[in-house]
Write a structure and sequence with these properties.
It is a single chain. This protein is of the alpha+beta class and about 725 residues long. It contains twelve helices and 43 strands. α7 packs parallel to α8 and α9 runs parallel beside α10. The longest helix is centred in the last third of the chain and has 21 residues.
């Protein structure tokens, strides 16, 4: 890698409108002067000037030196916030004083190697601006000394301006994942953590700093997300005498990361996104980077039918074959058989771990169903929960030592099981191979195209025997073993796709998505709940990775009744499908379902490659989500209500992202059902015939909405009628 500037005192990383500028002091790690807008070409003199312009005073009552944050701020730097690294030897914390041995620079990358020879530690830090301007940062720590050291945490941070005065974090619960909470920027060092052994429904997800409350389409915004599928820490340091820091890292338990001589701990990747264009600008950084990955799905996302809410555990080969025929007739392209097909699995208390077909229910095995599905032109998918085990299973009876848990909690006297299931210790190579061989055999035998990979419980007291036989926290090795298993199955079966489901959206991070092809956003198919769940999932994930299905009415997860038109408009916002017994549909419903299937296939290339836009509306009852083609010649929007509009004259909605210089045809797509609203006089553009308008009108003035009833949605499509220059 070559330096961008002749003066090795600086590193300037630039890509896609983003820059990170660092100073290299004589002692210590590089200091971050700037993360944000691209500042253009900078000479060495410019960089000296930038350093001078942004240097700070030594305030009264503080240390003598005016410290800037380094790539890894620590107490030994004079940093008074949460240290970026806490490493302990013999119960005593170490305070490294790093000397940089090597700094390799490129246009958008910096790799730094630093050592503390006295403590016997080597740190390697890698900073990169990826495609789309997304910043990636990770660290590696190696123990070069003669004695073991314990890593308590090693976290990635970047500074944001002091003017970022609001913080948005996320919480949630099962069937209401990813609920944002915005507050004034808290003072001091604060941390949000999850200790569930998976991301969890209340995961921190993304931490967002903004100038004022965050907006969809405007305002400087900074965000961080950790690509890790287990316990995490999201941190914010807003101290009176230091720059504000955002950061994240793996949460490890005491004794979990113990480095012997020569061993290395590598952190998960922390992703940082800055944008001058609000939350949509942040999302665009993530989406652009995700779509540029070599493994990103590029084939059309097939319309799915998953059988869970159609049959639950009541498996009847005859009914499921009828359901498969009905699914194919209405346009389904992927048929997924959910839980209940394997040995002794008549409810959720038995069978997990025994991944062989239950011939009491399926006398001829699953081969006839899989064969029929393929004959009908659909892909065949199958549900597994590989990381879990029931005590009532042949596996648990034969290998009780394969359970990842405190032995005192198995069987649980304190209710620490969930659905009477426990966690299978994938870091045990025999357990790992058991799963690989059983799943792989079924993939080969049945020609499985897709696996719904579920993970339905937290890891409670997860201890695993280490190399010395001593029980230690096992979440870290369990997570990497799960990654390795998914990667091996996909390598052994090219073309196999895998979905990450964890009681819905409990594991949707960029760590698991290194290996999987989509996520199940939530176990809730209630479209009202889904409007916000999908919106905030798409802050990081592009829509083609977000499973979004049409369920029955009333919805099984909430009991809420909704119109089919509202359910299909909501599912259109992701990788669409059905979670519904189509055999129970009326003739009119089947006509609408088939029309929706055709509409999804027509629009999916636009939804799954377009830029996602969310209008900044005043009325909290409105949800406006759009997808605009990269060349801005087409777009589709869902305009939905989650409550009654505040006022009779509803606001106009601007169709952001279009080209003001083009003209567009505007039409409502209501093949699967029409929205309902109050009033007899309807805005003229809602007539049967499309209208033609300049992009400048659609983006600058917008469309007048009718007074929609609660839980109604319009699907609005625009197509350029003049060619783009």
């Amino acid at each position: 890698m070559n330096s961008l500037v002749e003066d090795s005192s600086w590193s300037v990383l630039r890509r896609d409108g983003v820059a990170v500028v660092l100073a290299h002091p004589e002692r210590g790690l590089p200091l971050v002067l700037h993360w944000g807008a691209d500042l253009g070409e900078l000479t060495s003199a410019d960089l000296w000037g930038l350093d001078s312009a942004t240097s700070r005073q030594t305030a009264p009552g503080t240390l003598d030196s005016a410290w800037r944050p380094s790539l890894l701020p620590q107490e030994s730097d004079g940093w008074a916030g949460r240290p970026g690294l806490l490493v302990v030897a013999d119960g005593v914390p170490l305070f490294p004083r790093w000397i940089v041995d090597e700094a390799e620079r490129a246009t958008a990358e910096l790799a730094v190697t630093a050592r503390d020879a006295k403590l016997g530690l080597t740190l390697r830090s890698h900073l990169e601006i990826g495609t789309g301007g997304l910043v990636l940062l990770w660290h590696e720590l190696t123990n070069d000394g003669p004695n073991p050291v314990d890593v308590h945490w090693l976290e990635a941070t970047l500074p944001v301006p002091r003017s970022a005065d609001h913080l948005t974090q996320f919480t949630g619960r099962w069937s209401r994942e990813k609920a944002p909470v915005t507050t004034a920027m808290p003072g001091g060092s604060t941390a949000r953590q999850t200790r569930r052994g998976r991301s969890g429904h209340d995961a921190p997800w993304v931490t967002v700093a903004s100038l004022g409350t965050p907006r969809n389409r405007a305002g400087e915004t900074w965000a961080t997300h950790l690509g890790w599928s287990a316990d995490v820490t999201h941190r914010v340091d807003h101290l009176t005498e230091h720059p504000t820091l955002l950061g994240a890292g793996e949460l490890v338990r005491p004794g979990e990361i113990r480095l012997a001589t020569g061993e290395t701990y590598r952190t998960p990747v922390a992703y940082f996104a800055w944008s001058p264009a609000g939350l949509d600008g942040v999302a665009d950084r993530f989406h652009t980077w995700m779509r540029a990955r070599p493994q990103h799905v590029t084939s059309p996302r097939p319309l799915v039918l998953n059988t869970w809410e159609a049959v639950y555990f009541d498996h009847s080969p005859t009914k499921l074959e009828r359901l498969a025929r009905r699914a194919a007739a209405v346009g389904v392209e992927r048929f997924v058989l959910d839980d209940g097909w394997f040995h002794a699995r008549r409810d959720d208390t038995a069978g997990l771990g025994d991944w062989v077909v239950d011939h009491d229910v399926w006398p001829d095995g699953l081969d006839p169903l899989a064969g029929l599905v393929h004959e009908l032109g659909m892909q065949f998918g199958l549900w597994f929960e590989p990381e879990m085990v029931n005590l009532d299973s042949d596996l648990a009876r034969a290998h009780p030592d394969w359970i990842l848990s405190n032995p005192a909690a198995v069987p649980s006297p304190d209710g620490l099981s969930f659905r009477t299931q426990y966690v299978l210790d994938l870091a045990n190579p025999d357990a790992w191979e058991h799963l690989r061989s059983q799943i792989s055999a079924l993939v080969t035998q049945l020609g499985i195209d897709f696996i719904k990979w579920d993970h339905n419980r937290d890891l409670v007291e997860p201890v695993h025997p280490g190399p010395d036989g001593v029980l230690r926290p096992g979440t870290h090795v369990q997570t990497y073993a799960a990654y390795a298993l998914i990667a091996r199955l996909k390598a052994d079966h090219p073309g196999l796709e895998i979905e990450s489901c964890s009681s819905g959206g409990g594991r949707t991070d960029l760590g698991i998505l290194q290996f999987t092809d989509r996520v199940w956003a939530s176990d809730s198919n209630d479209p009202l709940e889904r409007q916000d769940i999908q919106r905030w999932t798409s802050l990081v994930l592009p829509p083609e990775l977000i499973g979004a299905h049409v369920g029955p009415s009333p919805t099984h997860s909430s009991g809420r009744a909704t119109d089919l038109s509202y359910r299909v408009a909501t599912a259109l916002q992701g990788h669409a499908g059905f979670e519904w017994d189509l055999l129970s549909c009326t003739d009119d419903e089947l006509v609408a379902v088939a029309a929706y299937a055709a509409l999804y296939k027509e629009l999916r290339s636009l939804v799954h490659t377009g830029t996602v836009v969310h209008a900044d509306t005043v009325d909290p009852a409105l949800r406006v989500t759009g997808f605009v083609s990269p060349d801005r010649t087409a777009g589709v929007w869902t305009v939905a209500t989650v409550a009654s509009p505040l006022e009779v004259l509803t606001e106009r909605v601007r169709l952001d992202g279009l080209d003001p210089a083009l003209r567009y045809s505007v039409q409502v797509r209501d093949e699967a059902g029409s929205a309902r609203w109050n009033g007899w006089v309807t805005p003229g553009w809602l007539g049967k015939d499309p209208i033609d308008l300049p992009g400048s009108v659609l983006t600058g003035v917008g469309l007048q909405l009718p007074t929609l009833w609660p839980m109604q949605a319009l699907i609005v499509q625009v197509t350029a009628t003049t060619p783009a220059e």
